[in-house]
Amino acid sequence: MPGRDIFFSEVRMKKPLFALALAGSAALAVTSISAQEAGIPGAIDASRVQAGSYTIDPAHTQVGWRVSHFGFNDYLGLFGQITGTMQVDPAAIEDAKFDITIPISSVAVSSNGLKEHLLRPGKDGAAPDFFGPEPEPAKFVSTSVRQTTETAAVVSGMLTMNGNTGPVTMLVNFTGAGTNPFNKKETVGFEASAMIDRTQWGIDYGAPAIGREVELNISVAFEKD
């Protein structure tokens, strides 16, 4: 929501995310060479990325989430059936655009009881504890892209979820590009990480015993139109 604190920023980003990014960058060249030698279609080679419009491959894209449960351990879940688009030109990464839609109703967890709780209506006319039945999809639209290394960037944008809109920034790593051997489409992959404060989107049930901060890990494949 406008005027509210950004729920994720480079200042608040967990240090391990930066450490992982740096460690990953050191291994990218070796990974790319190994992939090509093994005949793997995708490789971490920016020269393979073609400028143009791309559409998400929903069968191979997912958004994982992780939240503390009473401080004992973390609980993990997953969203699938992701859709969206990317506009990119490798010569001008700062002009890239992302528009991504996440169906909240697609949430997958290991407990049937928890999924029912996430999607059930509020009691006696009250607001739902979490999303409620038939929730509107979440939507992320990028507003800026800043390249930080040859294979990484910081992507900022606005996330609309649960009837609220607010800013989010994520660390994005390029993970591979090439031709999909099955459908012959030029494909580009990324992984991204972010940390959100769920209460800023009106999802405050159980906080802070159930963690306010939710770690997001995104794995996405884009196919060239």
Low-confidence stretches: 1-23
Overall mean confidence score, pLDDT: 88
| Gross geometry | elongated
How many angstroms does the end-to-end distance come to?
33 Å
Main beta sheet strand tally, sense and closure: 8 strands, antiparallel, barrel
- What fraction of residues sit in β-strands? 35-45%
Strand order of the largest sheet: 1-4-5-6-7-8-9-10
The CATH topology assignment is Lipocalin
**CATH-derived architecture:** Beta Barrel
Gyration radius (Cα, Å) is 18 Å
The CATH class name reads Mainly Beta
By DSSP (H or I, 4+ residues per run), the number of helices equals 2
Q: CATH superfamily name?
A: Lipid/polyisoprenoid-binding, YceI-like
Overview of the molecule:
The chain is mainly β. The chain has a single domain (15-109, 137-224), classed as Lipid/polyisoprenoid-binding, YceI-like (Lipocalin, Beta Barrel). The protein is 14% helix and 43% strand. It is built from 2 helices and 10 strands; from the N terminus they run αβββββαβββββ. It has helices at 15-37, 112-119, and strands at residues 52-56, 62-69, 73-79, 83-88, 97-102, 138-149, 152-161, 164-179, 186-197, 210-224. Strands 1-4-5-6-7-8-9-10 form an 8-stranded antiparallel beta barrel. It is elongated and about 55 Å long. The model is unreliable at 1-23 (pLDDT under 50).
Map the helices and strands:
Layout: H1 15-37, E1 52-56, E2 62-69, E3 73-79, E4 83-88, E5 97-102, H2 112-119, E6 138-149, E7 152-161, E8 164-179, E9 186-197, E10 210-224
Antiparallel strand pairs: 1-4, 1-10, 2-3, 2-10, 4-5, 5-6, 6-7, 7-8, 8-9, 9-10
Q: What are the key terms here?
A:
225 residues; mainly beta; Lipocalin; eight-stranded antiparallel barrel; disordered N terminus; Lipid/polyisoprenoid-binding YceI-like domain-containing protein; TTHA0802/YceI-like_sf; Lipid/polyisoprenoid-bd_YceI; signal
